[in-house]
Design a protein that fits this description.
Blueprint (H helix, E strand, L loop, with lengths): L5 E3 L2 H6 L3 E2 L11 E5 L6 E9 L5 E8 L6 H23 L11 H25 L3 H24 L5
Antiparallel strand pairs: 1-2, 1-3, 3-4, 4-5
Amino acid sequence: MQRTRLGALSEAERKAGNWTRIDELKIPNNKPVEVWLKDLEFPVLLTKQLFTNKDETRGYRFLARNELNLTDDQFTTIYKKRWSVEEYHKSLKQNVSVGKSPTRTEKTQRNHLYASMLGYIKLEKLKFANKMNHFAMKTKIYNQALKAAFKELCNLKSIACA
């Protein structure tokens, strides 16, 4: 979002059309600031959060809220709940292909949705058993499949592969 989203720190800047990428706005960490986002007719509170990934890389994200009377703790609690729903939908789309149904009738679409939900449940079970998220498991399986395919290709060509 931060690379393309534009904002202004005041209504005067907004009216003048002085838009700045939000990652370039002077917003302190973890302190909500009232910002006007381009294409919105009302101000929002924007919070910049720094985070560290498991691989020690650092990054930041911007969280926007239009409920100006929430405390930071209330907003963070809501965001955490909402984020788990976002992860669920992302995994449904990217890992179990819920949106790639070639079906046309209502019954076959329902069956595809049901099968996708079962696939998601199986991924959840594997996630807890292997302590890996859905995307890490998918990558591991994909890499093993590539290695097996390369090995078979080498066998078919009767050549030595490294």
